[in-house]
Design goal:
By secondary structure, the protein is α+β, with helices and mostly antiparallel strands. The protein has two domains: 88 residues, Peptidoglycan synthesis regulatory factor (PBP3), Domain 2; 245 residues, Beta-lactamase. It has ten helices and 19 strands. Strands 1-14-15-19-18-17 form a six-stranded antiparallel beta sheet, with no helix packed on it. Strands 3-2-12-11-10 form a five-stranded antiparallel beta sheet, with helices on both faces. A hairpin with a 2-residue loop joins strand 11 and strand 12. Helix 2 runs parallel beside helix 5 and helix 2 packs across helix 6. The two termini are 44 Å apart.
Length: 411
């Protein structure tokens, strides 16, 4: 029985609608596969290790207590002998000068206020003379600048002028000593005891480790660093005075302070500047309790040979080194590589740790930043950017159409 016109119309409409539905479904499928975002590719981070340098071989003196450190390096690098407090002798004057500067600040190059000597300063001279201290002549009415008094205290190591400065800055010896004890505590030198501004008392003592801290603090002050590096100084009414540190100018030594005390021996807190593979290294060392300065000077020369050999450059990474790899779901491979080389000067066999943080990547151009390699050594952190070694590109329509399940949001 032939179909009616109405039935033919309905059948044609159904066919058209079905075809349109198929076309629409195909269009949706194509658009969602060809235009859908890709799943990101995670990185596989490679394990890397940085070999440390060779262990330092140091010849420390057999007496007293000794230690070495360096500016920018935490704590003590190496030490030997006593770790208990030992008499500082005139190294104590470094504390005095820094505490004086706390009350009477000086900028580098300034002479500071004028200070007139009085009968009280003559009395201090007589006091330290009676104690067989290191002194320089004084009389009432002499006028010195603050900087000149600091030169007399540190270059000549004059006990009487160091004491005069302390009383001038704080009004009394007791007030100075209270300020000195607070200053020592604030700068975390727990072994250090201050009972006199000159170090003439055996109870003015500190461990070798705390004296390294003191040395670094002194070097950080341009006024003090400038004075302790002077081989000699000429001051009116006193004359030309030679620095008591006879090692100045040799072994790269630029300071810092000698100390000599009956019953305690000879001391030297020193700083030595050197270039290690183009990087400046300032070594700070101390030797306490030698029988004479000639002996400790000779021992420091031997010690410094090993200390200098103990600093060396360690290569952390070379440009192009691989830190991670990517393999996309469509089989394309690339790596995350160092964008630059990096090295660091280290001490002895100090350990170096390394980590890499790398982000997932969908597609990316060659050199695109994808993370950071981080190296840590002796409290210092060095970061190197990581980039793609080669481009990670879109897989193309063929793969997209045949792998819809691996596309974000695709049917």
């Amino acid at each position: 029985m032939p179909l009616s016109r109405r039935q033919l119309y309905r059948r044609r409409r159904t066919t058209v609608i079905g075809l349109l539905a198929v076309i629409l479904a195909i269009a949706v499928y194509l658009s969602m596969t060809l235009l859908a975002p890709l799943s990101a590719t995670d990185a596989v981070v490679a394990k890397r290790a940085v070999l440390p340098g060779a262990a330092a071989q140091l010849a420390f003196p057999s007496y007293g207590g000794s230690a070495v450190g360096a500016v920018g390096y935490d704590g003590v690098l190496a030490q030997a002998g006593s770790t208990s407090p030992l008499p500082m002798a005139s190294i104590t004057k470094l504390v005095t000068m820094m505490v004086v500067l706390q009350a009477k600040p000086l900028a580098d190059g300034q002479e500071g206020p004028s200070v007139t000597m009085t009968s009280a300063d003559v009395s201090l001279y007589n006091r330290y003379l009676a104690q067989n201290g290191s002194i320089s002549p004084v009389r009432s009415g002499l006028v010195f600048t603050q900087h000149e008094l600091m030169e007399l205290s540190l270059v000549r190591s004059a006990d009487n002028y160091a004491a005069s400065l302390a009383v001038w800055a704080y009004g009394s010896m007791d007030a100075y000593l209270a300020a000195a004890k607070s200053w020592v505590a604030a700068h975390q030198m727990p072994s250090m005891a201050i009972t006199d501004p000159t170090g003439i008392d055996l109870s003015d003592a500190a461990s070798a480790a705390d004296l390294l801290t003191l040395g670094k603090l002194a070097l950080a002050d341009p006024v003090i660093a400038g004075i302790v590096s002077m081989k000699s100084v000429t001051i009116h009414d006193v004359g030309t005075l030679k620095n008591t540190n006879s090692l100045l100018g040799s072994l790269g030594i630029v300071g810092i302070k000698t100390g000599t005390l009956t019953g305690a021996g000879s001391n030297l807190l020193f700083a030595s500047e050197h270039k290690v593979d183009g990087e400046k290294v300032t070594i700070v060392g101390v030797v306490l309790g030698g029988s004479t300065h000639a002996i400790i000077d000779a021992d420091i020369k031997v010690l410094m040979t090993g200390v200098l050999a103990g600093f060396h450059e360690v290569t952390l990474v070379s440009k192009g080194d691989t830190f991670a790899s990517y393999t996309s779901r469509w089989g394309q491979k690339t790596t995350a590589i160092a964008e630059k080389s990096a090295s660091v000067v280290t001490w002895s066999d100090t350990a170096v740790t390394s980590t890499a943080t790398v982000t997932p990547v969908t597609t990316g151009a060659k050199g695109q930043d994808v993370g950071t390699a981080t190296f840590t050594v002796a409290g210092r952190t060095i970061r190197v950017p990581l980039g793609l070694a080669t481009a990670l590109t879109d897989p193309g329509p063929g793969w997209r159409l045949s792998h819809p399940g691996l596309l974000i949001g695709a049917p």
